Amino acid sequence: MKKKISALLLAVIISLTGCSSVGLSVDNLMHPPKAVGDKAEIQSLVDTVAGEGHTLKYPQSGNFRSAITMKDIDSDSVEEAVAFYLPQGDIATVHILVMDSIDGKWQTVGDFKSQSTAVDSLNFCDLDGNGILEIATSWKTYDASVNQFSLYIYEENSIREILTEYTSTNVLSGDFTDEAGEELIMLSLFSEGKDAGAVLLDLNENKSELTSLGSAPLNPDVVSYAKLQVGSIFEGQTGAVIDGCTKSGEYNTQLLYFNTYYSSLERIAFTENVPYNQALRSYPVMSEDINNDGIIEVPAAFKLNIEKDRTDRDAAASIYWCQQTSSGTVLLISHKAASFAYGFTFDIPEKWEGNFTALTDYNNNEVTFYEWSKDKTGDALFTVKISDSDEALEGYKELTKTDSRTYSLKIYESDSSLILTQDEINDYFKLM
Ligand SMILES: [Ca+2]
Ligand SMILES: [Ca+2]
Ligand SMILES: [Ca+2]
Ligand SMILES: [Ca+2]
Fold first, then answer.
1. In this predicted model, what pLDDT tens digit does every residue of 21-68 receive, in sequence order?
2. What is the whole-number distance in angstroms between the Cα of residue 179 and the centre of ligand 3?
3. Which residues are registered as beta bridge partners of 303?
4. Alpha carbons 203 and 391: distance in angstroms, whole number
5. CA-CA distance, 378 to 415, in Å (whole number)?
6. Residues 200, 184: Cα–Cα separation, whole Å
7. pTM
8. 238 alpha carbon to ligand 3 midpoint, in Å?
């Protein structure tokens, strides 16, 4: 039994070490959809346009990973089709092919040749706010963290191409200015010949080119993006939340938003030397809306206290979930202890602040919460034991269960003021 858990634990630890990044290639997992009805007609149109010996190409990152993507671009409740193909030939480059069903017949509305042999990502955004989506495409270059960007605008049954000089590692879209349609934020990792940075782009008034509304430097230590989000970063402010992974395998968070007063792209980097304002962390915990108030919180995670020379136990983690405010200060939303090894968190009650720790015993699959005072563990308060048996172990009470694990609880006899009831522990305990 112990062995099985250890294997499980090992798998967890392996998957947690090192950075996983967004945008890994899944080319070999993808197959075109089976052709039925419209799909058969689209497939046959692609075959005709792309010619003999062509190959379909799949965007390697982002939300749209099919060679042929169906999307209602012009908001008439009927989907259009966007395909990527590589024609046969020695110096062939990938084409983007846009098709629409006009008068009941699938037709080409645009076919453009890129300068690339691979597609990084496909996206749809409404930059001019006219209800018709623009097609945003990132093309791979020889440098893995640099993609070339082009935009395609659908107008009166044809597509117009806007080529740009802009390159990026990832592109995000959203209404960052709180008016007049969406904008794009281009994020670039540090690479040879390019500094880490972000630029906010908008389509100009006569829809002929992308213009910059502002730029900001980003942390050059970030080597991959672990999680990218667009959402509310404080009351009334949309921004980009960038969880990054550093070369040394740590995680950090940067926020980007457009400051309308100064007309500038601002970055918040959480690098103050205080717990609530220090997002650099060794744990793979990413920003999220932890309290469901619509605003994304940023985690600051640390190891809990343990005696300096102690090696038979490992301290669990402490996570401060923080929210940015419009005044520039940081608000503590919640404080949790967390066991990444066993996949649970525990809300820290106020009376525990500064007085507790939680230590993991990997041999016995236990996490025990203790009083902590004068740099030492004091009374044991309770133990959470994780087993693969179907019910709580003898002397323990069941806390919760998953398909493969049972979390059992033992509360110790103690005079400590930190002692909690089983109901309180049940309330504070949550699976990740
Ligand atoms: Ca349509
Ligand atoms: Ca539009
Ligand atoms: Ca806008
Ligand atoms: Ca929130």
1. 554 444 444 444 444 578 899 999 999 999 999 999 999 999 999 999
2. 4
3. 317
4. 60
5. 11
6. 6
7. 0.86
8. 10
